[in-house]
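seq as requested:
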Amino acid sequence: MALSSIAGQRRAVGFLKRVLEKETVPHAFLFSGMAGSGKLAAALEFARALNCLSPRDHDACGSCGSCHKLEEGLHPDVVHVKSDGASIKVEQIRELVKRFRFRPFEGKFRVVIIHDAHKMMELAANAILKILEEPPEANIFILLTLESQMLLPTIVSRCCQVRFQPLDDRIVAQWLVSQKGLLAPSAEAIARLAEGSLEKAGWFCGQDQTEGWKKVVERLESLATLSILDLFPMVSDWAKGRETVERDLEFIKLWVRDLILYRVAGARSPAEGTAGNGPALTFELHGKTREAAGSVPAEHLFILYQRVELAMQGLKVNANLQMCLEGLCLAIKDLLYGKGHWNSFSKRGQAL
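struct tokens:
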């Protein structure tokens, strides 16, 4: 593998190759972008190109001793700093500083890759800032993060920023076929769920995840006819697992996005393949859901999308899980299916 083989990141890779063409390399880089977009792979290939013994076209040759060592994870001049538990602690940075007393062992540069740099505690962040202000010779730092705003502005200002974009669905589907052994139809469906992330795509490959999003869609579609008395027990059962619900909210967000695409952009269902115009939907829309999505005011769907975002933000600050779900399900009944579908009492309740 080489830097030029990083798929779907032409702009980022092109910039890094231009850097390699120059005699002077910036001492610090900040690679930002969603998880699974190729930041770590690019960091490793950039490190390999920096220390390659026989570079070709400003890229690693892939066959010299240095390249082989890095590929096997044995290169002494590529240092990884990862979170210890939930965060990166100042003790880890202090341990790193001890290495700077010595020059790189074998390569031209020592490359320090800081994973999830946004997880640095305040003392650790200040320690890194001090290093970046007075960088040790022959050391290159690559900080990996989701968003640059998650780091101290003073750290960001001392780094050369490289932004990684979400991967195209086609690239994700090809990866699922080649690396996970999926058939093309399944790979394409999961690629739409993954939103440009190989990490998400790999996670969705599990049978539990596939069944999970199908169950979520069934629950959402059942809201069209579910009575209020039956809704609350259903939500109560749904809210029993916090980790699962956080995942399910991601599915709901994609589902509402599908409704918007169907309503305003003429998106087609996965079963329709390449027929029709417009983008492809992630999920199949059935019955009353398809009918409602085609007739409800588009403003209602945008409001519903915002409600999902608010529910997701609420969970991040430990809002009541069941109340978040209840409010969201009631909003779907109201905004998507209309007040005529509230059905306050089930047939059993009406008979009492």
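The CA atoms of residues 19 and 25 lie 6 Å apart.
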